[in-house]
Amino acid sequence: RKEVEQDPGPFNVPEGATVAFNCTYSNSASQSFFWYRQDCRKEPKLLMSVYSSGNEDGRFTAQLNRASQYISLLIRDSKLSDSATYLCVVNEGDSSYKLIFGSGTRLLVRP
Amino acid sequence: EPEVTQTPSHQVTQMGQEVILRCVPISNHLYFYWYRQILGQKVEFLVSFYNNEISEKSEIFDDQFSVERPDGSNFTLKIRSTKLEDSAMYFCASSEARDRVGEAFFGQGTRLTVV
After folding, report:
1. Is A44 an 8 Å CB contact of chain B?
2. How far apart are CA A46 and CA B103, in angstroms?
3. A33 vs chain B: nearest CA distance in angstroms?
4. How many CB pairs under 8 A join A and B?
5. Which residue from A46, A96, A101 is facing B43, i.e. has the nearest CB?
6. Cα–Cα distance measured from residue B43 to residue B61, given in angstroms and rounded to the nearest whole number
7. Sequential pLDDT tens for chain B (115 residues)
């Protein structure tokens, strides 16, 4: 079983649409969770951390369900500039420094 | 905005040659990392470095790989004898503190092509 699993997409949506991405992780002891964004042939950039209570940053909402080992990202009112690959990222915490990346979900926002 | 810088942006090398990839992490960051991404695949952790020593490494980071912080600003990844399968984008990253490991800043990457 993959450590962090995501639907690869692509999700092709019109501007203004709401789109949701899901991610599951295999290690129930994982401690911190993040969404990164990666544009084509560019470096990953932190989009937002994911907190147990859920959190929102403008048009972006992230949620965590520890019982189901499931993380989600909701993007409202999609913009053309949101087109990118969204990476679900997990840190197992304690003695681990590494970030475990999912393969990413590709989003295409069309005019 | 502070950024992680990497040089060169693209390196082509012959199989069996040594390469050194260079990085300048953000100045007040304490944790440094190397990741790689083979074309079309996911980002993979190689190694983390703190307080002048390796704090964690992956199975990929075998004896052919080494890291060094030769001075107060640079952080390097050396591959001793490159193989074709080492061709990938190599990203350097840094983070400020242990409890902010997940909030890593990545450099723009060095694309390594082994021929």
Report:
1. yes
2. 7
3. 7
4. 58
5. A101
6. 14
7. 889 999 999 999 999 999 999 999 999 999 999 999 999 999 999 999 999 999 999 999 999 999 999 888 899 999 999 999 999 999 999 999 888 888 999 999 999 999 9
